[in-house]
Design brief:
With 845 residues, the protein is of the alpha+beta class. Among the domains are: 21-191, Alpha-Beta Complex (Topoisomerase II, domain 5), CATH 3.90.199; 254-333, 2-Layer Sandwich (Gyrase A, domain 2); 510-831, 6 Propeller (Neuraminidase), CATH 2.120.10. Helices cover 28% and strands 25% of the residues. The longest helix is centred in the middle third of the chain and has 42 residues, at 355-396. The protein starts with 16 loop residues before the first helix and ends in a 14-residue tail after the last strand.
Length: 845
């Protein structure tokens, strides 16, 4: 028979042993996984811990009440909710009371609860306990229908399936457990950091209306924060654990080398790694000394007391303390590893979670808790307001009410008459019948009316929370920030760089590179040394091979270790490291930018900014239609892979230029037809990322902005046209005007020069790179370009074939301007180098 059937007691049932073993073992495994070994992601507790705290709550053991014998707590938990051995329950209670096991203790223990030396706690009949203040936050509002209750094992009691948990306890206190075929090992973290991360997720959801990228949370939650302090070596292990749920963290004791006397030193250990037995550690060091595996030590003693850990290791005269310490790190538990495996129950199923997933599940839990609590309070307030409304009606008609009651033979008759006469509900009528005589005073009537009005305000508030998700999130945010204010503290565990830890960036040589892009957004990176310096007017070298329908549009200089910010024509910004752009030869076409960035089909790259630091300064953006906007650079410190909004832009406009400014700079905008305007950066008010901006220059018909630069005293303006002509002009030739004007003539455009295509600021010690639509690049020195007035066209910078135009320029800084001179010089060609009278045309916004 394959299944059990109803049979007489004396009849044998046949069953395949492999099926019986398989099904029975699966039931056993699931029981261990769900009901014993793994914590719930919502409150971070295993069933035994949850039942202990619920038992203590039922016993009214809050922090303001006297301690109660641990045996009483264990007995109640075992008899009502946890039908297992009392030792396992007491062990769980003891751990929640140990300040070296829990980062934030959930039990306030009184008596001997063990030590870091491995000493066991006293028997449960000797110790006493009550809930800690943090435990009360785990149980807050549990009586307001915030969580589900289920029957206990004998169905005589009810127990919660999860606690309300006002803070992310799984992350804050961690957990460890071995199930069947799986295990969890979650380290504790700092409460302040955990709450700040939750607030960040909520703010992104409610204010910016976007999902949170896990990299944003890594800026807040640095890594584990162990109750024993110590130090974490390196960041890779902690980052891996937070990003993937798995990682390996190296912990190291805090050791200080101190002088003892003439030519003698001692090592003082002030903290030990998490979960290391201090007595066993000292014993192990003693064994190393005895076996001569570590030499140079004359004395070892443990001077730890209730004020902290202090292990003193005295060294011989002339011993190298650093060598001794490194050997101790190598052979003893002064350096230990913590293997993180963030496995928890999500909807009853074991899942490995990263930081973002863990906090999202907590927020989801809080949404349900606050929603259920609000609905409970709303129902209670509405019920009370309903009764108050009836009582007020009764007081206003008291004579008639008394007459009805006195004229009734029994209570039920009086209730029915009141319902019929005043159109009351049965609940209101019963409340009136039970009303005390003191309620008949005028003062009591005022109190009832005041309470009724207050309840109406509360009902409106509670209804608003249930109707508006943002208000619901605001309640969660306010409550969790209150937890941070009450219990938040500084980190105990330091995180320091580790010499053996290699970042990917450490494997990349830092060098200056030329990065080129085409109109079809193909990008590549080439070492700057690949281009040698030529005299102006040369023909250049091939810098990129393009398709017939593609043209080179820009190039810029950056270090391989720079962040490269890509701004699109639609006002969005992306960011990657420069070294992640594939390196290619001079004649290679490059890589499509869509392989590196998550661009939409209607987006093109408009501007590129290399950035090292995000502290201080602004990004000032100019559009083709003459709009300009300034936003603090630190607003761009966290850019997710899918990009973020940098500028709110009109459908008929495009982003053209982005500048890094200080807040006190002079901004210069140039247009295609040779107009330009100079104004103070302070004329632009600072605004957020999603704002639109203000008018920078008033454009004439058929004109558009081609670029914007910052004018500096030691620099001059370089203007280049599509026909390969260019000139330098001193900054004082452009007078300062009010933002929003028409500007002045800054370049004389002709049919030969073509339209103005680019503007930059340069000095004579720098070099310039130009690229034409055929992909030809020339590198020339700035001091070979003539400096002229505003209304000149300049000199020939590059020889072009018919139908070819200059499409982009980039300057090379003085420290990078190193190259071989080309011996073959090309004859200088000068065009209209005579200033013409041209009145300046100003304008106002």
């Amino acid at each position: 028979m394959d299944e059990y059937q109803e049979k007489p007691k004396d009849e044998i049932i046949s069953r395949k042993i492999e099926k019986e073993m398989r099904e029975s073992y699966i039931k056993y495994a699931m029981s261990v996984i769900v009901s014993r070994a793994l914590p719930d992601v919502r409150d971070g507790l295993k069933p035994v811990h949850r039942r202990i705290l619920h038992t203590m709550n039922e016993l009214n053991l809050d922090p303001s009440k006297p301690y109660k014998k641990s045996a009483r707590i264990v007995g109640d938990a075992m008899g009502k909710y946890h039908p297992h051995g009392d030792s396992s329950i007491y062990d769980a209670l003891v751990r929640m009371a140990q300040d070296f096991s829990m980062r934030y203790m959930l039990v306030d223990g009184h008596g001997n609860f063990g030590s870091m030396d491995g000493d066991s706690a006293a028997a449960q009949r000797y110790t006493e306990a009550r809930m800690s203040r943090m435990a009360t936050e785990m149980l807050a509002d549990i009586e307001k229908d915030t969580v589900d209750f289920v029957p206990n094992y004998d169905e005589e009691e009810k127990e919660p399936t999860v606690l309300p948990a006002r803070y992310p306890n799984l992350l804050v206190n961690g957990s460890s457990g071995i199930a069947v075929g799986m295990a969890t090992n979650i380290p504790p973290h700092n409460l302040t950091e955990a709450i700040d991360a939750v607030v960040k997720i909520i703010d992104n959801q409610t204010i910016e209306k976007r999902e949170t990228d896990i990299t944003e949370l890594l800026e807040i939650v640095k890594g584990p924060d162990f109750p024993t302090g110590a130090t974490i070596l390196g960041t890779n292990g902690a980052k891996s654990a937070l990003m993937t749920g798995r990682g390996r963290v190296i912990m190291q004791a805090d050791c200080d080398i101190q002088p003892m006397g003439t030519n003698r030193e001692m090592i003082v250990v002030s903290s030990v790694p998490y979960q290391v037995n201090k007595a066993r550690l000292v014993e192990k060091i003693g064994e190393l000394i005895k076996e001569k595996r570590v030499e140079g030590i004359t004395d070892l003693r443990d001077e730890s007391d209730r004020n902290g850990i202090r292990i003193v290791i005295e060294l011989k005269n002339g011993a190298n303390s650093n060598v001794v310490l490194n050997n101790l790190y190598k052979y003893s538990q002064l350096r230990e590893t913590f293997s993180v495996n963030t496995l928890a129950l999500v909807n009853g199923e074991p899942k490995t979670l990263n930081l973002l997933q863990m906090l999202n599940e907590f927020i989801k839990h809080q949404r349900e808790v606050v929603t259920r609590r609000t609905r409970f309070e709303l129902n209670k307030a509405q019920a009370r307001a309903h009764i108050l409304k009836g009582l007020i009606v009764a007081i206003d008609n008291i004579d008639e009410v008394i007459k009805i009651i006195r004229g009734s033979s029994e209570v039920s008759e009086a209730v029915q008459k009141l319902i019929d006469r005043f159109e009351l509900s049965k609940i209101q009528a019963e409340a009136i019948v039970e009303m005390r005589l003191r309620r008949l005073t005028g003062l009591e009537r005022d109190k009832l009316e005041k309470e009724f009005n207050e309840l109406q305000v509360e009902i409106e508030r509670l209804t608003g929370i249930l109707a508006d998700e943002d208000k619901l999130y605001a309640v969660i945010r306010e409550e969790i920030l209150l937890i941070k204010q009450k219990y938040g503290d500084e980190r105990r565990t330091k995180i320091v760089p580790y010499e053996n830890e290699i970042e990917l960036e450490d494997l990349i040589d830092e060098e200056t590179s030329v990065i080129t892009m085409s109109h079809l957004d193909y990008i590549k990176r080439i070492p700057l040394a690949a281009y040698k310096t030529q005299n102006r007017g040369g023909r250049g070298v091939i810098g990129m091979t393009t398709r017939d329908e593609d043209l080179i549009k820009s190039l810029f200089i950056a270090s391989t270790h720079d962040d490269i910010m890509f701004f699109t024509t639609r006002g969005k910004v992306f960011r990657i490291r420069a070294y992640t752009i594939p390196e290619a030869g001079r004649q290679a076409r490059g890589t499509a930018i869509v392989n590196l960035l998550q661009l939409q089909s209607d987006e093109k790259i408009a501007a590129v900014i290399p950035v090292r630091e995000y502290d201080g300064g602004y990004l000032t953006m100019a559009t083709k239609a003459g709009v300009i906007k300034k936003t603090p650079l630190d607003k761009f410190g966290n850019i997710k892979k899918s990009g973020i909004i940098a500028l709110n832009i009109r459908d008929d406009d495009e982003l053209i230029s982005v500048l890094k400014t200080t807040g006190q700079d002079e901004v210069f905008i140039a247009t295609k037809n040779g107009m330009g305007i100079r104004f103070d950066e302070n004329d632009i008010r600072s605004s957020g990322r999603t704002s639109t901006g203000v008018r920078g220059i008033r454009l004439r018909a058929g004109d558009e902005v081609i670029g914007a630069v910052i004018l500096k005293d030691d620099m001059k303006a370089l203007l280049v046209s599509s026909g390969g002509f260019g000139k330098c002009t001193e900054n004082d030739m452009f007078r300062n005007q009010t933002r929003g004007g028409v500007g002045v003539r800054v370049y004389k455009t002709t049919e030969k020069t073509g339209a103005l295509i680019s503007v930059a600021t340069v000095n004579d010690k720098e070099e310039l790179m130009l690229i034409n639509s055929e992909g030809i690049i020339i590198r020339i020195k700035i001091d070979t370009i003539r400096t002229t007035g505003r209304n000149a066209s300049g000199v020939k910078l590059i020889n072009l074939n018919d139908g070819v135009s200059v499409v982009g320029i980039a300057k090379i800084a003085e420290e990078d301007a190193v190259g071989d001179e080309d011996e073959e010089a090309v004859e200088e060609i000068v065009v209209d180098d005579v200033e013409e009278a041209n009145p300046e045309v100003g304008g106002v916004e």
